[in-house]
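Hi support team,

I'm opening this ticket because the web form for multi-chain structure prediction keeps timing out on my end. I have pasted the exact lines I submitted so you can reproduce it. The total is 426 residues across two entries, so I didn't expect it to be a heavy job. Is there a limit I'm missing, or should I split the entries? Thanks in advance, R.K.
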Amino acid sequence: MKPFAYHQPGQIPDAAKLLTSIEDSKLVAGGMTLIPTIKQRLASPVALVDLSKLGSLKGITDDGATITIGAMTPHAVVAASRLVQTKIPGLAALASMIGDPAVRNRGTIGGSVANNDPAADYPAGVLGLGATIVSSTRDIAADKFFLGLFETALEVGEIITAIRFPVPLKAGYSKFKAPASRYALVGVFVAKFADGVRVAVTGAGPGVFRVPPMEVALSENFDPSAIAAIKIDNDGLTSDIHAEADYRAHLVTVMAKRAVDAALS
Amino acid sequence: MQISFTLNGRPTTVDVEPATLVAELLREQLNLTGTHIGCDTSQCGACVVHLDGLPVKSCTLLAPALDGATLLTIEGLQGAPGSNQMHPMQEAFREHHGLQCGFCTPGMLMTAIALATGKPDLTEADVRHGLEGNICRCTGYQNIVVSVLAGAAAMNAAKGE
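Hello R.K., no limit was hit. The queue was backed up. Here is the completed structure from your submission:
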């Protein structure tokens, strides 16, 4: 790896200041994406700003109608949380499917959401649940946060501090994973609220997206059969060594049905 | 930068470049070559170590993360304290032929021990799922799974005595 400076600020404003004052500096949370990216020389930051000394960013709190997960909370903690398992079992299940046990001990929800990998799991849960991304400066609705391939609404120096999830009536996640990387070839998160259903897809295209026809159908009848005949257009979906676009389009329907099944079980 | 941590029970202080991976630090600076680097892309698990008791991939961990932490590597495993015995999980791998070439074994052992700690009811499905991040190209996993189940039983029996 090329050398870089390393900063471990103790306060969020200090971290933000480092990020804005050092050009080509990068935040590092769990490092499960950033470190491989630097090793492959796809990124060459001159400085890393490590958030691990900010204890306030870890932990899960119950606010009644919502639960709030600190940005530095590792996937393994979310997966094992009794609170998340009780209130949003679909989200605990999603966290348990990310990577492998060692990756889940390091990787964090904030890092995953900020990176917005097109095949990451958390963006599907965050968009599917209509969560709120809480940053050092503002609250951002999930619908306005994910802007496409590795792109988000975050400004330079803006740091995610937590994600606030509304508690749904039911929610489920299902993914077809790439066997080596364990990223989602296609993953679908389905959440049922009193005022309707949300369906979010990861892995299929250049960024996480919703499927309005499935949302309408499931709002009328929350059953896998309601969406069995709904096929999404493969135009704009990803084709790569793992799967062609039309196969990914097919998988969206299959995974959506399984996600509804998971939500109902 | 200077970092201080507990390595296999001993207080350790080293000077490192921040852009040093823990796997590199262990193998090249501290001469602990039991931790292997296989894929170097955090998929194969040959480099698994325990950071504050949790299994992590040391090829995807920067040295500064060790500061103030407790690190356990394959070299730190032991049986009964003060004895010359191997760890019960190592014994189980030997007894049940849980390795062939041995390259993946340090990572398998570290993952297996984390998986088995405090889990007396570990099932075969738990083991197969728990080894998801450790790749073996020799055994077909069958004897590894048998070894982990036997090692888990031995570890938890030893705890219960």
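A quick check on our side: The longest strand of chain A covers residues 184-193. Let us know if the file doesn't open in your viewer.
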